[in-house]
Amino acid sequence: MTDSGQYTEHLLSLPVHTTMRTSVPTVSPLDTVALVADVMIGEKIGAVVVVDGDRPVGIVTERDLLERVIKTRKDFESTTVKDVMSKPLITIEADDSASEALDIMRRHNIKRLIVTKNGAVAGITTERRLLTIAYKRYMMKGISAAATGANYGVIGITVGFLSSYPPRECGIATYTKDLVDAISDLYVLSAPVIFAVNDKGSHYNYGGDVKYEVDQDLAESYEEAARYVNASNIDVISLQHEFGLFGGAWGEHVIHFLEMLKKPIITCLHTVLLQPDSTARRVLKGILQYSNYVIVMAKVGVRILEELYETFPDKVRYVPHWCPNGPLLRSESMKRRLGLEDRITISTFGLLSRSKGIEYAIEALPKIAQAEPRVLYLVIGQTHPQVRKHEGETYRAKLSELVESLGLDNNVRFVNRFLRKNELIGYLQATDIYVIPYPNREQISSGTLLYALSTGKAIVSTPFLHAEEVISEGCAMECSFKDPTSIADCAVTLLKNDDVRRRLERRAYEYSRAMIWPQVAMRYVNRFYEALKM
Predict the structure, then answer these.
(1) Whole-structure pTM value
(2) Which of 88, 390, 424, 430 is buried most, with the most CB atoms less than 10 Å from its CB?
(3) In the chain, what are the domains?
């Protein structure tokens, strides 16, 4: 076979998820056609997928609107999606090939094909998109292997990730899994190798990408992991660092791992302490010493590491925390799905712990409810597993008692479970105001903040390090630390001024576009090659 023929065969064998658009606007069968039109115009797209729960059941295209609504003179506000959508929906699984996608589109005479993963919507591909991807890859095929990730994963570099990992319920675990998936979707590296950190007394049913388990509290386990890396074909290590994730005083056991490694190290810092004690400072300086590059998720982190930890700025790289890529929707459309039609919704989500400051938001509610009696505060997420191990549901019980003592039973609802990503985004899309009442300034990254930005929420937040940058860009409203009155004043201002709230929503959404996963994943890939001097 000629080189051209081999390359064509390679392109057609690519998994269809490598060619799909991941942000797929969706509506419910019970939504109105007016909402569909709003989404199409706002997103500049020609089709919207119809989902029941997270399962795709149909599609509404521009032609559907022309033929079934406009030509028949139906009312946009009273006609529901189920009456005009095209069904049954033709789909393809994410791991099927681009060649199969083309065959399906030709066989069914369609131009758009919904991509699913385990039955849920994962993306959308089109004839034009497949052609564009194929052409771009053809134009790049002559570039050196190093610059292109070595022929798109055929002989790409291998990255090892040291972190917690699902099914462990932990924010860092979720972040690492999403990062690994996003990099895999770029199809530029070899399969990743995961070194999963297990908390004390826990055992998890990991998938096949986890090749090694590290016992959090055993220094010897870190040393054994380092020896494994050194003897393997792993090219570079990505360390996802949070102080509470590793054993020893302030997580010092991870130093045993780093000092023994003979491979380049890129460390992502999820927290940078502004007032560390001597042990915490020593541990972080050790991590900085052994890392080839350090990633911070807020630009202020570069300055903090330089001033407080005497790190050279050229060793630090800013890579934003990722956020999901979805459409900007008005909250009213999602409220109907969740039975919140008549409520004004405020929400906060995340694994519950005292560091979230939820009590200050609850204490702000009487003043907010006085201005808007329909207000409902959604506290979304279960108690952090580590908190539950040490103190059970004490903090949640304290919050429930506070709600009762303030007479707010009709104004607060706890969604006490770990939500799937689609469910979480649905709750955020149904939110009018998102509140982040963190009581401490030192948090340098916040996934909850990025989720709220990416869904275009009007955000009220204390000025912790990550939020400080967002506030300075005019994408969130600042409230004071541990100050219920300040939170209430901000929320009431937004509830009384629709123009201000809409402006914040738009700025938040636009600000988040540079932080969607494909962009962040590619920046990580560039750092890996930089560490290898390639």
Answers:
(1) 0.65
(2) 430
(3) 3-133 (3.10.580.10), 149-322+516-531 (3.40.50.2000), 331-515 (3.40.50.2000)
